[in-house]
Amino acid sequence: MHRDVIRRAVAVLATCLAATLAPAAGAADAPPLSLPDALALVADHPLLAGRAAGVAAARARADVAGQTNPWEVTGNVNNFAVLGNASGFGTNESVQGFDVAEFTVELGRTVELGGKAGARRRVADAETELASAVLAVDRNGLESGVQLAWWEALVARERVTLARSFVAAADEFTAVADRRVQAGAASAAESEAARAIAARRRTELA
After folding, report:
1. Mapping DSSP to helix (H, G, I), strand (E, B) and coil, where does residue 106 land?
2. Residue from 46, 18, 43, 11 nearest 33 by CA
3. Which of 14, 20, 50, 110 is most buried, taking the most CB atoms under 10 A from its CB?
4. 41 near 9, Cβ under 8 Å?
5. What is the CA radius of gyration of the chain?
6. Rounded CA gap, 86 and 165, in Å?
């Protein structure tokens, strides 16, 4: 499944490279896409962006796992009672309840025993390493595929350029043969042969 994802991503990038490197008609001398520029397509690929986000999330979990439990402040009120009857609220009688109440403030934090914190951090670190390894493997796979696709596209471009030069040469040869026939220096067969060669070159270019 993972390899299929890489193959599909490389196929999409290869299509883009082929379209970019293919020389347009009348623009055979246009500079092709450089290999560094082709590899830059890999850096911006959504697959690697997702993997990088996974690495960042794993690192964040590892940072949290490595932290000690925070200090906690708690407060309690004990022995609070309202003196007098219910009608006493809002009078001095109700205030007397706070005079005899006890307020307790506690500061503490949970201490994990048995190496739980260390084990949790090791698990989080392992997840980070795994996410980083997956990112590296995917990046290498995409870069290798793009490099191969770039060379294949470049070879195809050069073949097209060479085929066009053959067509131009065949057309020139046909023109020369026609002039020779008109001057009586060659038979019509020479002109026909030249035209046949030019037609074959055009077929190869198509």
Report:
1. strand
2. 18
3. 14
4. no
5. 40
6. 108
Is the pLDDT confidence value at 6 over 90? no
Concatenated DSSP letters of 142-200: HHHHHHHHHHHHHHHHHHHHHHHHHHHHHHHHHHHHHHHHHTTSS-HHHHHHHHHHHHH
C-beta separation of 190 from 181 below 8 A: yes
Per DSSP bridges, beta strands 102-108 and 72-78 are antiparallel
- Could you report the per-residue pLDDT of 96-125, keeping only the tens digit for each? 555 556 667 676 666 666 667 677 788 888
| 45's tokens | 């690929």
Q: How many CB atoms lie within 10 A of CB 194?
A: 22
The CA distance from 49 to 151, in Å, is 25
Q: Which helix (H) or strand (E) holds 18?
A: helix 2-21
Could you tell me the sign of the dihedral formed by the alpha carbons of 141, 147, 150, 154, in that order?
negative
d(CA 121, CA 119): 5
Q: For the stretch 27-50, what's the b/e string if a residue is b when 16 or more beta carbons lie within 10 angstroms of its beta carbon?
A: eeeeebbeeeebeebbeebebbee
